[in-house]
Amino acid sequence: MARSIDDYAEEMLLGDACGQRDGPTDTECDKALSRTMRTSDPVRNEVSGAVQKEIALASECIKNVVEEAASKEVRAEDAATNKEVLELLELAGLLKIQTLEQFLDEAMRNKGALGTLTALMNCSGDELVEKVGSLVKLVSEQNKTIKSLEEKLNTSMLQMKELSTRMEHMGDGRGSGPAAVLAERNGLDPSVLENRARCAMDNNDPRLLLSIAQRRLQQLKGHYVGHRQLAHWEGSYCITEALETSARADVYEKVKEVAISANATAEPGLPTRETARPAGPLIRGDPTTPVNGSRDRNAVKCFNCGKPGHKIRAMKTVTVEGTPGVKMLWSAHKAVADGCCQVANDGTVKIPVVNAADDAMVLQKGLVVGEFAEDEVIPVKMAPHDSDMLDSGVQKAYTFFKRKCEHVLKALLRHDGSDVSLTENGGFNIDVSQLNDLANSGTRFAQAHSWDEIPMERGLRPSIIALPIGFRSCERVIEKAENVELLFYDSILDVRSALDKKENWEVCIFVSPTSDVALDQKDWMNLASKMAALVRQGMVAVAIGGPRGDTAWELNRQRTVDAFNVIRDIAVTAANNVKIMFGAVPQMCEPCASMGDHKQSEEPYPCVSEKAFFERLHTVIEGNVPKPLFTMRAKVASRNFAYKMKKGLAEERIPLQEHGIRFKPWRQNNGPWRGREQGQSLHYGQRSQYRGGKSHQGSRNRKGVYGRNRPYF
Q1: Torsion angles phi and psi, residue 591, rounded to 5
Q2: What stretch or stretches form a coiled coil here (predicted)?
Q3: Angle at 142 between CA 138 and CA 144, to 5 degrees
Q4: Which of 63-72, 81-90, 252-261, 692-701 has the lowest mean pLDDT?
Q5: What's the average model confidence in pLDDT over 683-689?
Q6: CA distances from 374 to 1, 325, 326, 370 (A)
Q7: Residue 114 belongs to what H/E stretch?
C-alpha cells in the first residue's frame, strides 16, 4: 500500500533527493523570490526550503508508485509461469518431491551416460542414434552368420559320426551293419529285417530293377578283372602256363588232372554237360580255305617277357662281358633286343636271345652283339611325389592298410596268392602292366610281413629359434646344432615368412618381441594361424619372454600369451605341443631376468648379457624339446671370427705344436722375417724386423706397424 506524507521523516525526505541536482522547479522558485526578496532575507530561505521539501516528497511518492506498479507486473508474470510449470509437472506425475528428485537423478545419470557414449563413438548426440543403429544391424548379421556356421558345424559333426559308425562296421559280414545294430536295439531278429527288405525289393517293378542292374554293370565294366587258381599248394598247376612251360607230352596229363579236380569240386546239383543239338552241314558252298588255319608265329606272345614272335621255351640266354653297373645295351645283332641290364661285379651279364628264323643259329665266342652305354635310366614314376608307385612304396602301403583297415586284412587272408590282372588303368596316367606288377608285389609282401617289421627312416627335421633383432650377435656365445636356424626378426611378419618356407618344422622357440610400440593384433593372429597349422603337423612351439627395458614390454608379453592360447584352441588335438614358459607376473627364473634391462637400439645386446640369457634358456627348454638346439661356447668369439663363421670361411683352430712347427731364434734370422717357414709365425713379444733394418721389441700398448705381432692361425 502507498504511504502518506506524514509517514516520511525529515531524514528520508532530505536523503538522496537533497543530494540530487536542482530541477526546473527550484530554478523557477528562485527567480520568483529574487524579484521581491533579497538573497539574505530569511523568509526567502524558509520559502525555498519548504518548496524543496515538497518537491522531494512528491518525487518519492512518484517513485513508490512506479515501483509498486512494476512489482505487480512481475508478480503476475511469475504467477502465470508457476501455473504452467505446475500443469507440466502434473501431466508428468512429478508433483511429489521424492518423485521429482528420482527423476532428476535419473536424468543426470542419463546425461552422463550419453556423454560417455558420444566420447566413445567419437560423434555428436545427433549422430549417435545412426551409429548405434548400424552397430545393431551389424550384430544381427553376425548372429545370422554364427547361426549358419553352427548349423554347418552340426551337420559336419553328424557326418563325422556317421562316418565313424561306417568305419567301425567296415569289412564286417552280412548282418553286422547299422541295420543289424538297429534290430538288436529294437529287440528284433536281424533275419526278419533282411526278409522284409527282400520282400520290399520283390515288390518293385522288374523293369526298374533291370535298368538299375544294367546301369550298375556298365559302371563297373572294365574296371577290374581277376582270375583264381583252383588250388594253391605244392605241386599245383596253372593252366595258362601249360603250353609254355611244359613239354608237349606232359601237357595232356597235367590238364587232365586239373579237369578231374575241378569236376570233383563242382556242386553236385549243377549239370556237367549239355544236351546235344542238331547242327547243320559243316561246309556250305565251295570251301576255298581250310577252317582251322595255322596261327601266325609273330602274333604269339611270350609268357615270360610279353613280346610277340616267340615262345618262352624258344628263348635262350648268352653271357656277355661289360663293366659293372646298370648299363643300357644297344643291340647290333638281330637276335638281341635293346634293353637295360645289370652287369655283375665280375663283368658278366646274361641276356636273352631269340632266333625268329626257321634255321638254327650259332653265335661264335667273341662276337660283338651290341654296345653298353652309360645312359641314365629313369624308371616309371620315380619322382619324389610319386614314391608310392615304386615297389617299396606299394609294399609299405599294403602293409600299413593291413594293420589299420580290417577289410584289407580280411581280403588278404582270403586271397589265394594268385596274380591280379587289371584291364585298364582307371584314368591314371600309368601303364596297366605296371599297375598289375605293383598290385601283385604289394599283395605278396603284405601277406608275408607286418607293419612292425618295416623300418621307418625319418630325416632330420629343421628347427627354428626366433629372436628379436638385438640378438643378432648371439653366434659369438652359442653354437647352433645341426639343422637349426636362427631368425632375428624385426616384425611378426618376418617370423610368418620364415615359417612359410618349410612345412616340416620340429621345434619353434619364439622369444617375445621388444619394441616401444605395441604390434598390430592382426599380425599376431596371422602368426597364430600359421603356427597352429604347423603344431597340428607335430611341431613343438615354445614361448619365451623377451628382454626387458622397452615401453611395450608388458603388452608384448601379454599378447604373446594370448596368441599361444589361440594356437592351443585351434590345434586342440596337439595342445600339448604348445608351451608357454612365462606368466603374467615376471619370475626370476626366466631368461629375461638374467640379463637385466636393455632397451632395444641399433647396437646388439652385449655378449655378457646374451650369454646369461642363453644359459638360462638352455635350462628352461631342456625338458620341452627332443634334442639340444645349441651349445654354449667356452669363450666368447671375436667379431671377425663370428663374421667368417657366418660366411663359412672360419676354420677350426689347431695348436701349431700339433703340426711340428718350430721357431728359430731371432738372432739366427739373416733378414726381415727370414727363418720362418711356410705356415709359421712369431710368438707374442718376439723381435721382428721392419723397414730400415732396425729391430723393435713388441709392445702390448702400441698399435700400428710397431705393435705386437699377432700369430696366424
Answers
A1: -60, -30
A2: 139-166
A3: 120
A4: 692-701
A5: 42
A6: 140, 9, 8, 13
A7: helix 97-121
Which three cell numbers, joined as nine digits, stand for 256?
587232365
484: β partners: 463
Range ranked top by mean pLDDT from 107-116, 118-127, 242-251: 107-116
Single-letter amino acid, residue 227: H
Using CB atoms within 10 A of its CB, is residue 261 exposed (0-12), middle (13-18) or buried (19+)?
middle
The region of weakest confidence among 220-234, 404-418, 481-495, 630-644 is 220-234
Strands (E), 589-694: 630-632, 688-689
Which positions ≥6 away from 696 have C-beta within 8 Å?
687, 688, 690, 706
Would you tell me the crossing angle of helices 553-570 and 521-536 to the nearest 10 degrees? 40
* Residue-wise pLDDT tens digits, 228-239: 444 445 556 666
626-658 burial, b at 16+ Cβ within 10 Å, e below that, comes to eeebbeeeeeebeeebbeeeeeeeeeeeeebee
User: Using alpha carbons only, how large is the chain's radius of gyration in Å?
Assistant: 55
DSSP SS3 for 240: helix
Which sign does the torsion angle of CA 646, 651, 655, 656 carry? negative
Contacts (Cβ under 8 Å, ≥6 apart) of 687: 666, 695, 696, 697, 698
Neighbours of 713 (CB within 10 A): 11
CA dihedral sign, ordered 154, 160, 165, 166: positive
Pairwise CA distance, residues 63 & 74, whole Å = 17
The grid coordinates listed for 594 are 638374467
Output helix, strand, coil percentages for the chain, rounded to the nearest 5. 50, 10, 40
What confidence tier does 204 reach under pLDDT thresholds 50, 70, 90?
low
Q: What is the pLDDT of residues 3-30, one digit of tens each?
A: 444 444 444 444 444 444 456 666 777 7
Angle at 677 between CA 676 and CA 678, to 5 degrees: 125
**C-alpha 79: how far from chain center:** 80
Mean pLDDT for 24-45 is 75
pLDDT of residue 293 exceeding 70? no
pTM of the model: 0.35
Domain residue ranges in the chain: 5-82, 178-221, 297-373, 384-453, 463-647, 658-713
Distance CA 65, CA 70 (A): 9
Q: Determine the pLDDT at residue 117.
A: 83
Instruction: Compute CA 196 distance to the chain's CA centroid, rounded to the nearest angstrom.
Output: 51
CA 4 to CA 52: how far, in whole Å? 18
With a cut of 90, say whether residue 507 has pLDDT above it. yes
How far apart are alpha carbons 245 and 313 in whole angstroms? 7
Distance CA(416)–CA(411), nearest Å, equals 10
Return left, alpha or beta for 53; rule: phi > 0 is left, psi -120 to 50 is alpha, else beta.
alpha
Helices 432-448 and 391-404: crossing angle in degrees, nearest 10, is 50
Q: Which three cell numbers, joined as nine digits, stand for 126?
A: 545427433
Res 566: pLDDT = 92
SS3 510: strand
For 197, left (φ over 0), alpha (ψ -120 to 50), or beta? alpha
Among residues 479, 485, 505, which one has the least CA distance to residue 626? 505
Structural fold of domain 463-647: Rossmann fold (3.40.50)
Counting other chains too, the contacts that 470-473 makes at CB distance below 8 Å and 24 or more residues apart are 470/514, 470/547, 470/598, 470/600, 470/601, 470/604, 470/605, 471/511, 471/604, 471/605, 471/610, 471/613, 472/604, 473/604, 473/605, 473/607, 473/610, 473/639, 473/642
In this prediction, residue 567 carries a pLDDT of 92
Q: What is the mean pLDDT of the chain?
A: 71
